[in-house]
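Sample log: Macrolide ABC transporter ATP-binding protein.
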Amino acid sequence: MIDIRNVTKTYDTGAIQCQALRGVSLNIHIGEYVAIMGPSGSGKSTLMNILGCLDTPSTGEFYFEGQEISKYSEDQLAEIRNQKIGFVFQQFNLLAKINAIENVELPLIYRGISSKQRRDLALQALEQVGLSDRITHKPSELSGGQQQRVAIARALAGNPPMILADEPTGALDSKSGGEVLEILKRLHQSGRTIILITHDINVARQAERIIVIRDGLIEEEGEKVS
């Protein structure tokens, strides 16, 4: 599904240039569950942004579903994000003034899906995360774990083949975090590709494969540590 080859990313801060990635090559296959770990400043967030088509490499090749996309325009990348990738972030990123089902419907609006179909898809997604009884609740009326489940439902509503989860348990207590990881596990078992970004080895161990990045390079790649 994803094949990146000798990818670099350099940021020009004005006085100096910062090389966040220094020649990263990586394959992620359809249906895999991969965790990417690394300390602060390791390049993990930069790698996540490239894998999620939120940014482009400075040099190197990036193949997504067989298409070389490293030089795609922002509109072309936005199309991939909208159609192919569901995003789950640490801070949920829900809109406070609208309720759960309306938050889940949001990305479907940009696809031009009719209001009835949007509502049906959003209901199905909320049912998958066990929140069919909270659809009219606003984020402030939900616990942190419930808010993250709404965020997962939003990522699922368009039925993307890949879920990219950035520290999805970082703002949660252990019980709520465990529930979120169980949902990701079920999504993987249903055939979705899961890319999990984390600094927590116990969270990373939920994946099939752990990739460690440090100083802009992949330091270690292997099967799950038992």
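Observation: The mean pLDDT is 93.
Observation: The two ends are 26 Å apart (CA to CA).
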